[in-house]
């Protein structure tokens, strides 16, 4: 029998190996997308690539998630762990750009450590009963094409943030602050915030994310606001908010935890870098959202359903601390779902989770047709008829399914990334939409289906092309014909973008093959 100490070390080694296995594919995907040319495919299921800058040969087990990377030493193939791959990525980017970036190297290492900490926390946690929330909290590996998808740079060690991590099934009370009335800055409809508690006379209620408050409450400007009485502490909510996949957005449940109140989402600033950005809500983003969200809301309302948009009616913050302690109100999910439907996060379909609709699908091609039919037409219609390009990537896409797991509705969210034409040049808005819809969303869903159901792999993209052709006939969108004929699509180069510290709103792009271009109609 294994002794208690031996069991502990076995468990730690298990989490370490699992973290390495989960952290290799995203970084490997970055290299395969941005820094290699393919040399050959082998009969053993491997592909051989030549690293662009160094010329070395990299062999990878091909598939839905590339794995088992090996480097040719001149005599044999040498297996690579995550740390080895980080070093190779740094060498390639350094040679290609002529600059170093030790911060990104540290982030990639920290991302793998974060995955290990998350796995250990999940082993001792209890998954939520709610299927939608379970999907929101399922993203252990994270973005499939990012060098550091789980890094929490600036947020402290895992012990400081695991209690707020969606991947660790986090639920926690929100801090309640009072803002003196003459120090309140707000736009739009913020009445939902006043239902979260009670503020003293002369003050307005302001909820704060406890992680953000821990990171900012000792800043001189924040301390001064408390000392001057512009801010007061009012305790915490009697109910617990639920962490969602974006980390800084939480769900405030309706009854029975908040009797008489509807569910809603609250989005906060967070002084932590997650993937490509420090997740701080900046003043111009808050103001821009007040211009953009009504246009997107009106576009989806004009469609008459079933596609839905989670609108963001308003925000509230503190004068002098606009970016430190803002809160954005977002519609709850329940009021937007068609009767009998259950929503799940599209990104979770890629990673898999207990209760995933894909686990009970009997006809994967019918499922794919339904997914396309509910996602593609409203996204293209919003662009063609209303001039808005929604950021419909996997983490902003909720797919509602029926009792058999088939899509019946799409629900989209997050006005921050939406682009409005002509405020955003049409070409830039379209490129962002194509990346989000086709590269980030549909390509990943199709790859997941092809991996699970290899028998339908060859039919997926012909069906998708037919869907786009139908939209083209109905909408007459000039960009659609060009899209169907294009040999390549724009894909975000996350490794290069992070290496050169490109602004998160202006990433670099690289071309990837367009799966719509080389397809034939299904008989």
List keywords for this structure.
15 helices; 21% strand; alpha+beta; single chain; 523 residues; 40% helix; Transferase(Phosphotransferase), domain 1; 3 domains; 7-stranded antiparallel beta sheet; 5-stranded antiparallel beta sheet
Report on this structure:
The chain is an alpha+beta fold. The protein has three domains: 4-122; 170-331, no CATH class; 339-513, Transferase(Phosphotransferase), domain 1, CATH 1.10.510. The protein is built from 15 helices and 25 strands. It has helices at residues 4-34, 82-97, 102-123, 131-136, 158-161, 191-194, 210-216, 220-227, 283-303, 346-351, 364-386, 426-452, 457-475, 478-485, 494-499, and strands at 36-41, 46-51, 57-61, 67-72, 77-79, 171-172, 175-180, 184-188, 203-208, 231-236, 241-243, 249-252, 264-268, 273-274, 277-278, 308-309, 314-318, 327-331, 342-345, 388-389, 397-401, 407-412, 419-420, 488-492, 509-513. Strands 6-11-12-13-18-17-8 form a seven-stranded antiparallel beta sheet, with helices on one face. It has a five-stranded antiparallel beta sheet with strand order 1-2-3-4-5, covered by helices on one side. The chain has a four-stranded mixed beta sheet with strand order 16-22-21-19. Strand 21 and strand 22 (407-412) form a beta hairpin. The chain is globular. It starts with a helix and ends in a 10-residue tail after the last strand. The model has no long low-confidence stretch (mean pLDDT 95).
